[in-house]
Design goal:
Blueprint lengths: L6 H9 L7 H12 L5 E2 L10 E3 L4 E6 L1 H4 L14 H24 L3 E6 L8 H14 L5
Parallel strand pairs: 3-4
Antiparallel strand pairs: 1-2, 2-3
Amino acid sequence: MPDVFDPAALSAVMRRVKGRDTGPELKVRRLLTRLGARYRLHRADLPGRPDIVLPGRRLAVFIHGCFWHGHDCARGSRVPQARRDYWTAKVAGNRARDARNLADLSGAGWRVETIWECALKARALPVLEERLKALLAETAPRP
């Protein structure tokens, strides 16, 4: 099946896909702020440039889109009809990169938490808030 867009239109669509300050990321940041956590954004000196970093707790948080990072939910397991080979390779590469970043961060003494886009649906937010509370409780800030 061919692409729906011509190359110029496809390029314009893909340019609009954001890598930071996305809706899911903003939701998690609001929850963390409400819980009183202090954090930094997109630390370039850490492997994978985590979306949220709590340096005093040595905690790195990645907020992953289900489709882009190949989650096992309905949205993440969907493969587009057009250019199937490209998209399966793209998502597989993203997953491999995520695994490398997790291993590098863990090896450097960081705890890593991944929050999936599907966990940010309205009905799942109370569960996520409890999960974040537990994370903050078990990783008390260093003096």
